[in-house]
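Q: I have 397 residues here and want to know how they pack in 3D. Can you give me a structure?
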Amino acid sequence: MAEPKSHLFIFFLISSIFSVRSLTLSSDIIALKPLNTPLNLPPFLPILASALGISLPCWDFSTEPCSVPRVTHFTCGITCSGSRVVQLTLDSQGYSGTLTPFIANLTRLITLDLTENNFYGPIPFSIFFLPNLQNLILRVNSFSGVIPPSVTYLKSLKFLDLSRNSLSGSLPNSMNSLTSLSRMDLSYNKLIGSLPKLPSNLNELALKANSLTGSLFYSSFNGLTQLMVVELGENSFTGTLDAWLFLLPSLQQIDLANNSFTGIIVPKPPPNFNSQLVAVNLSFNRINGILPVNFIYYPILRSLGLSYNQLRGPIPKEYNKKGSMQRLFLDGNFLNGSLPAEFFSGDTAVTGSFGDNCLTSCPVSSQLCSKSQKPASICQQAYGGPADQGLNCQSNV
């Protein structure tokens, strides 16, 4: 009776082995094969592969992409769950070509990451019909064309990074329908136009180094209670920065440097408002008026940049009493008067720059005053009075 039992054991062993080996759904293979075709490799890689004794390309369709084990086949970029491809991540090896529209067959795909390669051409519309896609990361490639309105079909999308490409046109007006989106980085493209209504669950917004225009309106940011980071530097935004921006409840970092803003309204936070603001960079704009004193009421603000604007008047004496301040950049304005001595005491931990202003008593021995002050003639012209009315800009003691 032992022999039948041994046969039964062998049967179950073979069955278990074949149950572990998952075959790939045919539609997923149809999607992967044309994607494999344009993966043109840099010339040094075949030489390196030969030296290391490995074969190229790293997708070998002589076996199933989702077969187990996957040691010698499909070694780069594919992750499966059962018989379906759920992640496609290419290493930064200079792969080039256009992206196949057949990628829409990967209906279980959660992550598509082609970071730092040489893909070019438009992003296929079919990508925006992947129902389970949560992470679309195409940064540092050469994709061109517009971001189509169909991007808003990606209802599961949490992370969108199309930065450092050559995308053009304006942002889709219906971006706010991406209700799952928490991080969006479209920096370093050629985008134009104004900001639309933004997704309500955004944590991070990055649109640096585009050609965006217009003012920042509350309607674009209304309801963004989780927004922590705003990076809109190196654009062409204009107008006044209103109080609502500084009162977004979760906001920690604001970078609006290198734009054309002309005014700023910094409110004193309400009594029950727990500000999270840590860093503000508004340098290289056209902001005029006096230096806002209300920044001192933001309890954990550590870094403030207002360099190279058109600010006038004295530096508020309260600034030197703000214990949390660590970095203060005010150079390149028309600030005048004398500086509180506390800025130059041994107890201060503030770094930054007060140079290229109209200040008196700014000692050149201090790192804060390493840049010289403006000539008296420029300060006199800026204030419309004689140089002896507290505007001796060249007085560096």
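Q: Anything worth noting?
A: The first helix runs from residue 2 to 20. The CA atoms of residues 183 and 198 lie 11 Å apart.
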